[in-house]
Amino acid sequence: ANTDALADALAIVQHHDAVSGTQRQHVAADYAMRLSIGYLEAEKLVASSLAYLSESEPSSGQKRIATKFEQCPLLNISYCPPSETALSDGKSLVVVIYNPLGWKREEVIWIPVSNERVTVQDSSQRKIDAQLLPLSNATLKLRSYYVRAYLGITPSELPKYWLAFSVTVPPLGFSSYIVSSANQTDKDRSSTISKVYTSEGNT
Amino acid sequence: NKTIQVGQGSLKLLYSAEGKLARYINSRNMVTAVAEQSYSYYTGNDGTDKDPQASGAYVFRPNGTVVIKSEEKVSLTVMRGPLLDEVHQQINPWVSQITRLYKGKEHAEVEFTIGPIPVDDGIGKEITTQLTTAMKTNKTFYTDSNGRDFIKRIRDFRTDWDLQVNQPIAGNYYPINLGIYVQDSTTELSVLVDRAVGGSSLVDGQVELMLHRRLTHDDIRGVGEILNETVCVSEKCEGLTIQGKFYVRIDPVGEGSKWRRTAGQEISAPLLLAFTEQEGNDWM
Hints:
The complex is a heterodimer.
Chain A: H1 4-12, H2 16-20, H3 25-54, H4 81-85, E1 91-98, E2 105-113, E3 118-122, E4 130-134, H5 137-151, E5 161-169, E6 174-181, E7 192-193, E8 195-198
Parallel strand pairs in A: 4-7
Antiparallel strand pairs in A: 1-6, 2-5, 3-6, 4-5
Chain B: E1 3-6, E2 11-16, E3 21-26, E4 31-44, E5 62-69, E6 75-80, E7 84-92, E8 95-102, E9 108-114, E10 125-133, E11 140-144, E12 150-154, E13 174-176, E14 179-183, E15 187-193, E16 197-200, E17 206-214, E18 230-233, E19 236-239, E20 242-252, H1 257-268, E21 272-279
């Protein structure tokens, strides 16, 4: 894997019509396709790099097992199959976060989930503050329409919430967090569902 | 009693009972400001009658200077939790926004969703939002230069030649790739963006951003097609819906530049997420 297609796509979109958005529609579609091809190629490169970094040295006689990493390029329309499905089959979701800047960052990241009882831990198994926010009807409508338009598929399951949790990532480095289903009895460890207030009527 | 307060850290936003933003308060640096927000649209020039130049991809040329206000009463939903507070507002059937205040952060994040812009009345529309304060900015504002240094802009004025103002709105619009700010003797209002938009300060104390456009005529300036983006499912097409974010902060004068530099880089270099699975407690 390499980033040649991404380099080509970025070179082409330096054209003044692409920068200003004054290109013809079919040209805009061509730019978008080239960027998408470049992104998919770069995603493979990142996945293989992360697999290499997360691999532990196998003891003698054991097979080296590479971990498969996925990204969510359509997270902007709240479509992220790894986070939506991982918790439904009893597995935990590992989120690896890379910081491309030269200073430590403390931010909140967002992933769509279907489960309303989840817990988030850092790599030292410390519980992390997390908050669930219901996906609005407008967001779900947008997601459904654009997934059909871009991917030609109708996703079977709809996520119910955004899971927001705070992360700390070192400069030019990465952190990992584990999202898992919380035990029914383990109320203290699960994420907090947002309280909702509406100003309409007399509420 | 008649306002809704949002925010858990030092930054608080106050909304009126009608659901409109009214005040910005930062208890750490003692900034308190009247702050309002509205959405409007400019109607595109259709290039008929006596004026043959239509609004198009290249040409921003609002039909007169009429700004059509959004609906008066806005429904407001607030979500509160340990990390952030969110304010959901449906401005009209095709404009909505979510304002987020993160605990520990001193800026407001506004996520707008606009579209499909209706054009079945045959009129092109260019959608803008205005952030209004009481700051006395004396016709002056600052916009980035293609993501780099902020350059001083003065309304209806150019340093290098005598400007004849034919387009009081478009003639004062600038491209915004990183952000725009205004300041007076005590405070500065900074707005950073996550995407290229148009922007200006057409009224003292106000910042305006153009967020989405859908037009119905070609401007005959070379592109040869109408700026009318659509997205199709099973050969049924509708106007493009866009979603983006801008970030707002008010600082004592002279203290906003650090945030504009660091936050600007963080917006254009977001954290990269990669996902994998593990069995129960089989720690990787």
